[in-house]
Amino acid sequence: xxxxxxxxxxxxxxxxxxxxxxxxxxSSVPIGGGGASRPAPVQPKPAEPKQPPAASxxxxxxxxxxxxxxxxxxxxxxxxxxxxxxxxxxxxxxxDKPPENDHGIWRxxxxxxxxxxxxxxxxxxxxxxxxxxxRLMVPRVLYEAPSAFKAGFPDNYIIGEVSEQxxxxxxxxxxxxxxxxxxxxxxxxxxxxxxxxxxxxxxFKCPCHGSGYFRNGVNFEGPTPRPLxxxxxxxxxxxxxxxxxxxxxxxxxxxxxxxxxxxxxx
Amino acid sequence: MLGIIEQMKEKLQRTEVYKSIFRHTYQDxxxxxxxxxxxxxxxxxxxxxxSRHATNVGYTWGMGGITFLLFIVLxxxxxxLMFYYRPAAEYAYxxxxxxxxxxxxxxxxRNMHRWAAHAMVITVMLHMFRVFLTGSYKAPRxxxxxxxxxxxxxxxxxxxxxxxxxxxxxxIWAVTVGTNMARATxxxxxxxxxxxxLGMRIDNDVRFVLLGGTQVGPPTLLRFYxxxxxxxxxxxxxxxxxxxxRVRKDGGISGPDTSKEV
Lengths: 266, 262
What we know:
The complex is a heterodimer of chains A (about 270) and B (about 260).
Chain A: H1 11-16, H2 23-26, H3 29-32, H4 56-62, H5 64-78, H6 113-136, E1 148-150, E2 162-163, H7 167-170, E3 172-176, E4 180-185, E5 196-198, E6 203-205, E7 212-213, E8 219-221, E9 230-235, E10 241-249, E11 263-264
Antiparallel strand pairs in A: 1-10, 2-3, 3-4, 4-9, 4-11, 5-6, 6-7, 7-8, 9-10
Chain B: H1 2-14, H2 16-21, H3 30-38, H4 57-60, H5 63-82, H6 92-101, H7 106-133, H8 142-164, H9 169-180, H10 206-211, H11 218-249
Helix pairs in contact in B: 5-7, 6-7, 7-8, 8-9, 8-11
């Protein structure tokens, strides 16, 4: 009923067609470029090895008549009868100069100075704005607890007790042993939750995934791969305990025996 | 009386305003059927004609369309929630409670948002699964597969950023755990490969920028809120436009191999 004539409505028909009806487009190839998709030998190519490849499409386009005819013939063969094919004539590209002499806008002269300056300004602005937007995302001021803090006088601690006094604000436990003190970071080494100190079990237990640590911070159960981290602990000038959370001591690197990981006090 | 109405109707239909809104008649003709689609900015996303297999739910599962529907549901309910929710640490949790307990239809809107979000993650994965099973990632659709992978990532990021907003213990610790992965980013994380060598510390690496601090805190809430409500939906919408356009350009929804049929 419906003849295979193109009308406005058949967007999908293009897609459904088994053999794409592309030939009409390919007849205009010499304008666009590459010789790869060009059908058959369009023109006996002059055997000039010195000729720059960029110039070849222009050469083809310059002679429209002999190109269009063989293309149209090949098109007619590939399309079933009864279909009307519109052959777009090849137009010569407008060019003031031969392509090898045309530098486009990238030649500073009086004519295109403003052009280049405009693009330069545009890209400078874009780069500055991008850098600025990225830098803006890095805050300069943090409203967080300071990394170092004083934890009161050592005599206020009871031997054998784990102090949770500084846990809420600084995420640090201060443990008092008979020989002295150490500060444990209250950040689970599994995935960073805050474990709990369970005095009855004498262990740190993480509520997130069940990692467990002894009182000295060494892990013994759950998914955690390594012990809790110890933090630098020392005595300040006024006799108070000073904890610096920026300096960490890792058991697996044998750092717990280092100066600062343990505060001797009897 | 009837004559007057008919006259007015005819007069109305001759006005510029009427003709610019209703551009064609509605008799059931092939042409009008097509025009109804082409002349509508929303419907024109759809092809005018589709092949029979494209309507086969058993083949497509309709997962892409359902995902898009859920995205629209999430956009609408999300905007509604924004009328009550304030992304500041002092207010966020209370506003969420307010929505759930005292705002009329607040629980409905929040639960729709929540369940649609869960569903979207599921449908987007099922959509990917279907595309894989039917081989629809093959030429000429490789490009659209890549766009789809980006959209999958964006969906996960939307889900992840939205999870922090109730500002309860669950969300804070989930995001703490999730963002700790960013520590191990190569080059840009302070615990990742070549990170420390490039001068990455806990207070200048990629996780720090994401959180706006060294730990999940009020700046993180604000950042995730902006990402969740503005940035990620816009980026996702742009990629969705490309995705749908590409479906059309690549020949519509893929179907069974018909090359051997006549």
